[in-house]
Write a structure and sequence with these properties.
There is one protein chain. Helix content is 41%, strand content 22%. By secondary structure, it is of the alpha/beta class. The protein has a single domain, classed as Rossmann fold (3-Layer(aba) Sandwich), CATH 3.40.50. A 5-stranded parallel β-sheet has the order 3-2-1-4-5, sandwiched between helices. Strand 4, helix 4 and strand 5 form a beta-alpha-beta unit. Helix 3 packs parallel to helix 4. It starts with 7 loop residues before the first strand and ends in a 6-residue tail after the last strand. 25% of the residues are buried.
Length: 141
Amino acid sequence: MAASPDPSLLYVTDFSDASLEALHWAIPEALKHHLHFSVLYPFRLDQVRRKDNAVLSKKDIDRDASEKFEGLMENLLKSNKLTYDFHSEVGFLRDRIADHIRKNNVAMLVIGKNQVSEESFPELVQELNIPLVIVPSKKRQ
């Protein structure tokens, strides 16, 4: 799906329970601020299921992510009258976020605390010129 030229809230997910908690925080914020809702699922190919074929692994991961996103659309996004798009991208979390922000009109970034690594996130925070919300998990990890 093409990105919206309208200001957007970028929600980053790994489809974990903790990142889904962040989703429940992000949707009302997008509605409140009249922001397009952009979902980013960054992943690494070292997660491959098919060791012999990275292309097929990427397709498998993309398909699985799209199916999970479709489930979210049915349950949460469509019922809230949000405009939205979904991006499944190969790469490091920090790089994919920075690239998405650079190429799109992102007004706010929302991510679950479990996705934030102490090694890579300080650099991204230094680069950001938009609000960043890190949503803590309600469950102790």
